[in-house]
Specification:
Largest sheet: 3 strands, antiparallel
Number of helices: 4
Strand content: 15-25%
Order of helices and strands: EEEEEHEEEHHH
Number of strands: 8
Distance between the termini: 16 Å
Strand order of the largest sheet: 3-4-5
Oligomer: single chain
Helix content: 25-40%
Length: about 170
């Protein structure tokens, strides 16, 4: 599945809404004696200096979350599905949510931390099923459906909301 290109402003300011774990959340810039921070949902991103564009700091934070959370979740799912993975990477993929190489490397888009958990899990399962079938044949899709019955709902969510993932 490919993420649509964003139609949103490239600069994020106080009040800009972003998706985080499937929910629209507003960025809140707070200034206090010890510096500045951006808060959203249950997250707090400390800023090195006052910034007008919050996007670089927030995206860096989201990427760090993704680098911690996504490989662990993919490996949990791989174990439960009895799939062997050699390596997991988190990347800034512009044209896809994930990929799987013949050698067993699964790469995931860091923006998956912006999706609901079931969508993140669907992408992980989608890539894991490529360890069984390196194509999108009918047999491949049967593997996906058996492993993740909500796959069609996740695809619909991605089609409807993928453009909001900035």
């Amino acid at each position: 599945a490919k993420p649509p290109r964003s139609r949103h402003a490239s600069e994020w300011k106080h009040g800009t809404e972003i998706l985080f774990r499937g929910e629209q959340v507003a960025l809140q810039l707070e200034t206090h004696a010890r510096g500045c921070a951006v808060k959203f949902a249950d997250q707090c991103v400390l800023l090195q200096q006052t910034a007008t564009n919050l996007r670089p700091a927030v995206e860096r934070h989201l990427w760090q979350l993704a680098a911690t959370e996504l490989p662990l979740r993919l490996l949990e799912l791989a174990e439960s599905l009895h799939v062997i993975v050699q390596r997991v990477t988190v990347r800034n993929q512009r044209s896809r949510w994930g990929s799987c190489s013949r050698a067993g490397t699964v790469s995931l888009n860091w923006r998956l931390v912006q999706t609901p958990d079931f969508v993140r899990d669907y992408i992980c399962v989608h890539e894991l099923m490529h360890r069984r079938e390196m194509n999108h044949s009918a047999r491949y899709w049967r593997h996906v459906a058996d492993a993740f019955p909500r796959w069609e709902e996740a695809e619909r969510w991605l089609k409807a909301n993928g453009g909001l993932l900035r």
